[in-house]
Design goal:
By secondary structure, the chain is of the alpha/beta class. The chain contains 15 helices and 19 strands. The chain has 2 domains: about 180 residues, Flavin prenyltransferase-like (Rossmann fold, 3-Layer(aba) Sandwich); about 200 residues, Rossmann fold (3-Layer(aba) Sandwich). The strands form 5 sheets. An 8-stranded mixed β-sheet has the order 12-11-8-13-16-17-18-19, sandwiched between helices. Strands 2-1-3-4-5 form a 5-stranded parallel β-sheet, sandwiched between helices. Bound molecules: cytidine-5'-monophosphate.
């Protein structure tokens, strides 16, 4: 870990995990970073400013309206100072205030006043994390390019078990290090498909599926964060384009294939995360179709091209597939890998409500065919954003 010359503003808010941030501060300083600490009123109820001052080697800032602090270093100067702002623990209340753009204490004001990257490290009771308001706030924060690190799942100080635990200080320090130093995909081009496809039946009806695009978008963001040039070929979804990613929007499987053909010309990795419709209407009606009466209605379907298979046989890049299954996960995934001629497939069980379609969480079993042997890796259950990072790292390690 090398953080020399890096300026980190560490913000603490009220939560029992605040005591762990003393260790985080020590680790950042040990890695060479200059650390300045800002504490909210709530944070000071859990850990003293003196502790953080001693560990950071700098006076702690805690008051927006402190005349002496304002003359020594106003909040605007403080907002301009860091290379990165890390807020740990980030309480539900603070996340709500930060996403609402409130400026009612020093730390919240800094978030509004800064143009520097901000990482939120959530820590709260599992019910508070699961609360719809908190989830909506986290989504807003992610859209506004806040980095969200964690939370982890496990035992909580209050006795509950679930998502909401702050990730450990070492993991936070590693994420800070990775933020500055870890760009292993630099000079690689990744092409990723995501979301559903839409196949027209007539001018108002279509065939599609429930894919939200979240997993593919998270993979695109993770690859871009690690330095890759990323082209995301996406079916219609309600997600914003990830930062630093070129997004190509498509409708049908045929459109998707066309976009993939041109995007993969010089690509290194292709990840097929889209839920591509297997079939399309053979004849798309020019006018809205009318009711056919009691005899029912038949629509003739024809098969769509298999985009992943096309890439595997026509391009020289490392192709990764997904197998969303509701049963026989392992058997189906392995058969699919052979049929499509790919070396790696990520299987997930979409019959489970807690992971898969629409969920923010996922669990993957990754199969990789190395020479004669089949290797298996279990990833998650985790937030799709975290899982995506693990998967991107795994693909990169295996390719080497
Ligand atoms: O054959 P199946 O749809 O189950 O395979 C799933 C995998 O193949 C996914 O990676 C999906 O993105 C990809 N696929 C594709 N083109 C299709 C169908 C699936 O790229 N027409």
């Amino acid at each position: 870990m090398n953080l020399s010359q890096k300026k980190i503003l560490l913000g603490l808010t009220g939560g029992i995990a605040a005591y762990k941030v003393a260790d985080l501060c020590r680790q950042l300083v040990k890695a060479g970073a200059e650390v300045k600490v800002v504490m909210t009123k709530g944070a000071k109820a859990f850990i003293t400013p003196l502790t953080m001052q001693a560990l950071s080697g700098n006076p702690v800032h805690d008051d927006l309206l402190d005349p002496s602090a304002e003359t020594a270093m106003g909040h605007i100067e403080l907002a301009k100072w860091p290379d990165l702002i890390v807020i740990a623990p980030a309480s539900a209340d603070f996340i709500a205030r930060a996403t609402a753009g409130m400026a009612d204490d020093l730390l919240a004001t800094l978030c509004v006043a800064t143009a520097k990257p901000i990482a939120l490290v959530p820590a709260m009771n599992q019910q508070m994390w699961a609360n719809q308001a908190t989830q909506a706030n986290i989504k807003t924060a992610a859209k506004r390019s806040f980095h969200i690190w964690g939370p982890a799942s496990g035992d909580q100080a209050c006795g509950d078990v679930g998502f909401g635990r702050m990730i450990e200080p070492l993991e936070i320090a590693q994420k800070v290090d990775a933020f500055f130093n870890h760009k292993p995909l630099k000079s690689q081009h990744w092409v990723i498909t995501a979301g559903p496809t839409v196949e027209k039946i007539d001018p108002v009806r279509y065939l599609t599926n429930r894919s939200s695009g979240k997993m593919g978008y998270a993979i695109a963001q993770a690859a871009a964060n690690l330095g890759a040039k990323v082209t995301l070929v996406s079916g219609p979804v309600s997600l914003d384009s990830p930062n630093g990613v070129e997004r190509v929007m498509v409708q049908s499987a045929q459109d998707m294939l066309q976009a993939v053909e041109s995007a993969t010309e010089n690509s290194d990795v292709f990840v097929a995360c889209a839920a591509v419709s297997d079939y399309r209407a053979k004849n798309v009606a020019e006018q809205k179709m009318k009711k056919q009466g009691d005899d029912g209605l038949s629509i003739e379907l024809e098969q769509n091209p298999d985009i992943l298979q096309w890439v595997a046989s026509n391009r020289d890049c490392f192709a990764v597939g997904f197998a969303a299954e509701t049963q026989n996960l392992i058997d189906y995934a392995q058969t699919k890998m052979e049929r499509k001629g790919i070396q790696m497939i990520c299987a997930n069980d979409v019959s489970r409500a807690d992971i898969g379609f629409g969920s923010d969480h996922n669990e993957l079993t990754v199969f990789y065919r190395a020479e004669q042997e089949l290797e298996t890796y279990k990833l998650g259950p985790k937030l799709k954003t975290e899982l995506a990072q693990d998967l991107v790292e795994l693909v990169n390690t295996i390719r080497k």
